[in-house]
Write a structure and sequence with these properties.
The longest helix is centred in the middle third of the chain and has 48 residues. The protein contains four helices and no strands. With about 130 residues, the chain is mainly alpha-helical.
Amino acid sequence: MPSRGAENIRRAEQQQKAYDLQWRGAIEGALRWTVYGAIACAAGHFYWPLFRRQTWALKGFITSSASVTGLIVGADNYLVPYEQDVRRVENSIRRQARNDLARQGKIATEGEIRGWREAREKEDARGDAGST
């Protein structure tokens, strides 16, 4: 049975890239939405007398709530397209493996697909090494 080392390395790389994308999106979203919350509080303070009488704590809560919302939305805006791309590529590779294994008369179990993928990666590595 093929080893899971290459699969574990690939998944670790995908997880790290997803983490980096989430981090970047979260920071951008939090900064953007903090500005939106601060502008909304400033506008409310200057144009709405009832809001002007509210405490700084409530205004800070509104601004920080906007920041947290932006953090979540920003991270999600970066992560969801990345996950869709990874899923699309993974499904394409699995489809190719199932078709190739079916042509060979094999049943496409998880182990067979993993072995097919490792064999393909070795062939690609040999092809890349031979071309340089």
